[in-house]
Fold this sequence. Notes:
By secondary structure, this protein is α+β, with helices and mostly antiparallel strands.
Amino acid sequence: MTDPYKLIRNAKFFSGLSEATCKRLAELSRRRTVAKRDLLFMEGSEGKAVYLLTSGSIQLVKTNADGRETVIKTVKEGELFAEVILFEQSKYPVTAAACTEAEVIELPRAGFLKLLNEEEFRNDFMAMLMRKQRYLAERIQQIASMDVEARFVEFLREHYGEKQEITPDLPKKDIASAIGATPETFSRLIQKLEKRGGFTWKGKTITVKPCFWEQF
């Protein structure tokens, strides 16, 4: 079993943190296994911990005013989530549901906030957050300028890489939601891509030729 320190140290979110800071985080962490379809936390519940996904897949789901659920994000291995409870609000703004059996590293909010009271830890952590915030602002602006086709291709790249065969772990309606498209628009997009060539989606498998990736 991999040491929590190594998992935290290798997590993209924590890149740039000092070795000492990562060790402090590892000391307050604990592992937790989540069964497929189980909820890690519910929207509106008290935010007790921040999580780092170490294996499996977890969806973050938001309930709209009319009761409909929208997939906000599919968390990938190595990603931190629920960090909003550290600074912006004390309750979870979304529900976290396991798409597969998953394992997370749980970082208690109380312990995290206690570490932030220490000047060395706080300075290191806040400097890292500022770097990431600048990157995210640029990334959001970039994605906002993309059309639905480009957003779909970017989704595939981010979640599965430029593979020639992809087996999505999400239903089509959830992928459509993740890229800001209706199921009808997404269906038309798939037909358009298949007609163009270099892309097919049969059953649960997407087959992509190298020429497809070269277009984007």
